[in-house]
Every structure is written in structure tokens, then in C-alpha cells.
Amino acid sequence: MKLVVFDVDGTLIDSQALIVGAMGAAFESVGMPPADRSRVLSIVGLSLPLAVGRLAPEAAGAQQEAIVSAYRQAFMTRRIEEEAPLYPGASDCLEALSHRDDVLLGIATGKSRRGLDAMLDHRDLRRFFVTLQTADNHPSKPHPEMLLSACDEAGIDPADALMIGDTEYDIEMAKAAGTAAIGVSWGYHPAETLSGYDVPVADDFPMLLSMIGDWAA
Description:
Layout: E1 2-6, H1 16-29, H2 37-42, H3 48-55, H4 61-77, H5 80-83, H6 90-98, E2 103-108, H7 113-123, E3 131-133, H8 145-154, E4 161-165, H9 168-177, E5 180-184, H10 191-195, E6 201-202, H11 205-216
Parallel strand pairs: 1-2, 1-4, 2-3, 4-5, 5-6
Helix pairs in contact: 1-4, 3-4, 6-11
């Protein structure tokens, strides 16, 4: 049996509008100008406190905590369907993988469990996954604990696991955990950055499904 673990933001869902909008509102709530869009997208995948620390290193600790709190509130009030759609082919890919008898599916995301639950329930995706790992209970990517916990919960050795993600944090996490990795080119970090880690990079979900099949075989 194999375990395929998916990142969420930038891999399964195109949440850039939601993330940039919520982060902008959070910065404005403490009287700071919004961070540049490209900078915000560059930290997607990190846990929220670490991401805010990178975006606002000049802010005092209490101000960073206020930004984190405001982001969480803003995130939950935004429109998931409009601002965080599934990437084309994502649902079909998960459906196809769910019918294989040699593969289990999991998630490892920098999102909070509350944010992940909202996304999964809104789209009826929870049924696909046997393990859900979030930033609430683990160090931020690229620390390997999140991925190792996914393997442990699924009862799969890390050598039989595969991480799918759009950022270098995902690939670095996989390498630290001793799992295989496949990058995707449609997310928030450049495909050439992912290729620099000597991992294959898929250009669409049909290509990703084929790569996963080859790996599982």
C-alpha cells in the first residue's frame, strides 16, 4: 500500500485571491499597508505565524499576533467558492486515485484545521482522505513532522509515501521525511525552483495522475 499526500493551497485549490485578500485586511486592521501580492504568495505553505513574521519582520510581537488573529477572522468571512476554486482536474484526479486499491490519500497543509475543514466540507472532499495534517499541531513546513505524522496515522512507511505540492517547502519537507515528491507547476512557486530539487514537475492533473501511477507501480 502507498500513501499520496497532497498540499492544499496552490496544489488542489487556487486560493490566491482569498489569501491575498485576507492578508490585506489583516494588515490594514493594525494600520499597516498590505504586503505586496507576490510576497504574500511566496509564503503560502508556511504556518501562519511564521508567514506573518516573514511578511512583517519590522512589526512587534504583539502586532504580529494581531495580524495573525485578524487574518484568521478575515479568512473565514470570505467567499470560498469565488475566491478559492478547485484547480481544473483536481476533483477528477482525487476521484480516480480513490478507486485504486493500492493507494491511500492524505493532506499536509499549512492551513489551520478550521480553514481546512471549511474547504473540505464546502466541496465534499473529506471522503477522499485517511489522514489530515495541519499547522495547528505541527511545526511549519519544511519541518518533516507533518508528513511523518501522516505516514504514521495511515500506517505507511515514509519510503512508500509521496508528497504532492507547489512550493519548495513541500519538496524540502518530503526530502527531510524521506518520502518521494512531485511538484506541480500551476501553484505559487516557479516550476524551475521545484525542478532544482531534482523532482519531477507535473503541468496538469492528467499528467500528475500518470506520474502517481508510475510511482505507485
